[in-house]
Design goal:
This protein is an all-alpha fold. The chain is built from 26 helices and 2 strands. The termini are far apart.
Amino acid sequence: MLTAPHILVAMIVLPLLGSILNGLVLRPAFPKRAGVIATFFSGAAFVCALSLFFALGDSPQGISWSVSWFDVGEIHQKWGFKFDSLTAVMALVVTGIGTLIHLYSIGYMSEEKGPSRYFAYLNLFLFNMLVLITSDNLLGLFVGWEGVGLCSYLLIGYWYEDIDKAKAGMKAFLVNRIGDAGFLIGIFYCYQLFNTIRFDEIAQLLATSSQFDLHLLNVAAFFLFIGATGKSAQIPLYVWLPDAMAGPTPVSALIHAATMVTAGVYLICRMNFLYMLTSDTNAIIAWVGVATALFAALIATAQKDIKKVLAYSTVSQLGLMFLAVGCKAYFAAVFHLMTHAFFKALLFLGAGSVIHGLHGEQNICLMGGLRKKMPGTFLTCLIATAAICGIPPLSGFFSKDTILFSALASGTTQSNLLWVLGLVASTLTAFYMTRMFVLVFLGNYRGEGHPHESPFVMMFPLILLAVGSALSGFLGVPHGLHLMPNFLEHYLSKVLVEFPEQATAVSEHSAMCIATGLALAGMSVAYFFYGKLSRAEKSQKVLRPLQFVFANKFWVDELYGVLFVIPFQWISRFFSKIIDPLAIDGLALLPARISSGVAIVLNVLQSGLVQFYLIILLLGGLWVLWYSLKGWVI
């Protein structure tokens, strides 16, 4: 009989088994066969997560399993997994939405040659994400952390024959290594401070002892946050995520919605018992989060590539999640993580449906009028767009406003400013998402070819995600609305410690009304200017200087190129042309070159020719004779 720990291990291992079967054993040549295998194992992992959710119940200890990993001196590390309420929410999101993305990929990649590699990577991605969220210690989490980084590199650069796509995968890999270096330093600091890296033990030590140096706790928390900025694409390490659009669209949905980018938010929420004590680091997190949300939203307003708009939208929404954790509102961050997974996966898969129906076109200026051509995609994307804009009673309304009010009620000296900046970012979100929706679905068709609706295997995931985008917000209805109990907050209270909200001049209900009013205003402005192309052209002429800056993304990539890429290239060329061949290779090859020279001389002397030996003998004899005669004459 299977016990809960056995099911926990099965949930993690099943996607790995699917990856092995698709990538190494069966390697089916047809997309449908490879997709069915991958989707089956992903779906089986979701069933395991669902059964663990019900088995967990109200148990505060959770479900755990561990085995000895390694022993080095006094370090005795176990490979441990734990399934608690936070893990349950993450696992259901990862496996549930991940399974829908697998299913969608069967239709989207229907013309792909060699699909087994693609589906093997998808399953491997899911496996590593499950390792990340179920590990009961920082080191095991780091293994999954690196695993999803590897899989993102493989999937972003899936079409590696295209050099630009290969470079995008490499960029994601290298930028994340910067954050990972900070994460490793944070792990070392934690071990030095607590002599353990297990979450439960660190939490117990912090709860029972006050002897820890607050400065060192802030340092450890800060370096862990550096790791989070890499995975969750925050300033200054956000630049890899927009380029991640080079991979297939379902990959974008998987990275942006269900897996990789949520890892940084999850890390800080998992370590909430540490961050509750590190006010200095929390202030940095909050300001980085709100700055990222605002900065990315401005860039998104001028993008023409449908996937780039959604990419910068993801960066902006992640910024709001970091604003929440910086204000110690961990529930609000997880709540928005969950709702965002639904509507952002739907938006990306909807974009994939549009791209599929337009035979690869991604420029929103060459779309329009798809409401009639693709009615199913239109309706589902309408729900997702309204949800991310924060229109009640859809999911984004509840989760986004929970974050904004948490910033206002954080009690910090600059909480009002954080709230205002968050409101501006949210209003910009409503503007650029409505702009994208209007240019894609409304008006007249401006492109070439004949658009068509996607097949049912692609539409079915869109329908389920639309339901989640509409209804998932009711799991965490804010207390200020007095509608129903906040189930999600109660469920996560066993793991997440919430900072008590401070009294504010604006009530929660009023704050929601303000945010909703601004969202509607942003949508109205976008519809007014982009509902008719004549107005859009006039507005572009007036706002051309700003749009030029936003369209070029503030030239951050170019700045990084001048400050970091070009100098490193010069240094690399210097080392490759001078230091490496002359110093390193020269010293390493010196004994070989000496031996080679000696061998050449000996080879001449030991030629094997009798004539040569006779000549040497004759010359030697003449020399002896000359030497003897010279001495006799003297």
